[in-house]
Amino acid sequence: MAILVSELSDVQLVRQMLAGDADAFEEIYDRKQPGVYRFALRMSGSENIAEDVTQEVFMALMRDGSQYDEQRGNLSTYLYAIARYRVLRFLEKDRAFVLIYDGHDNEDESLVNERFITDENLLADLAQDQIIEKVRQAILALPVHYREVVVLCNLQEMTYEEAAKVTGCAVGTVRSRLHRARSMLVKKLRGVKEPNEIKQISFSTRYAI
Fold first, then answer.
1. pTM of this prediction?
2. Residue 101 CB contacts under 8 Å (≥ 6 apart), including other chains
3. The domain 106-197 is classified under which CATH number: 1.20.950.20, 2.40.170.20, 3.30.1300.10, 1.10.10.10?
4. pLDDT, tens digit (0-9, with 9 covering 90-100), for 36-88
């Protein structure tokens, strides 16, 4: 009995894609496109950049998929590394780029709220969408090398090891940057209200296994 492409592992799908199986590529795209797009959006703050990066990532996979080595990491890590390079390239082209995201991504909003704002008293007098926007803009305002570890580890739920492979840094560097980035975010968010009106800002430490 023939095995459905939906039942194949990522590695098997890549092999079949390289053999010319269009259905295998479509399955990879369906599985991985949402995560790649969200990563590019959270890194750039631009839907246009996120769309362009996502398209380039999967074109690169079709063209250079033979370079993927499952021994060095999973397929998501490989694709995020490509996406990271292309996001940075877009941002480098326009250093004056204004990071503004004005779309409506319900899944993104729930992730931001759940993983970054865990104290119900924090910004209690602001509407929910205002809270989400404050957090989003605080993340976008971080220097890129801090922003990317927050996006990868907190929002994309990657492990330190996976984030290290995406960024090309040592695991210890990822840890230290994430610690520093969290401190910077707390300071940015504390500025929204008077310090004595905020009890605590805590960050979830849920990471993908």
1. 0.76
2. 41, 45, 46, 47, 136, 140
3. 1.10.10.10
4. 999 999 999 999 999 999 999 999 999 999 999 999 899 999 999 999 999 99
